[in-house]
Amino acid sequence: MTSASAFRMLVPVAAAILLLAGCSAEATNATAQKPAASAASTAAPDASSHAVLAEGTTDLGENGVITSVVRSITADEKVMHLQYALTRDGGDKPLSFFALGIGHAPTVTDLANLKAYRPFCAEGSWTGDGKQKCTYTVLGSVPHYANTDLAPDATMEIGVLLPAPEGQPETVDVILGDGLPGFSAIPVTYVDDAR
Fold first, then answer.
1. Domain count of the chain?
2. Is residue 195 part of a domain?
3. Mind listing the pLDDT tens digit for each residue in 15-62?
4. Is the residue at 83 inside a domain?
């Protein structure tokens, strides 16, 4: 597949993903080994783009502080839509997720049913040799590549599609990516169309 045909294929997918929506949380400390992270919960079940259902910070030293905010989680029979924001305060130049030591592929976990959900991806899979390609091609509302830059004093709003949770759990736990805080007991809102 040429890069031009891949681009033509991904543009409609990306456009469809931009039509997404989401919901809630209680925070826990991140388990990643890179930057130090902490989290605090804020319950405000508002589906607006400024909702703060959970919030946590990651200290990146001289590269600033990342504030992670879970905006919402919605689900229908086929997909779950996670909306979150990353704000970088401080630092002196745009840096990639890789250079900042943070990940960009969230994991949503239903602890009651012992199920973990990873985002859909355009290439590869979450098992075997295709994991790295899958990580680089997560389907979301912004490019999810390790080389995507996060500018100082800027906010990146992100929407990611994952498989719908089995059994319609009321709450799930979320890890936004390596080096970012994890959040527990985030309510899931069930809708007719979560895309």
1. 1
2. no
3. 333 333 333 333 333 333 334 444 433 333 344 468 899 999 999 999
4. yes
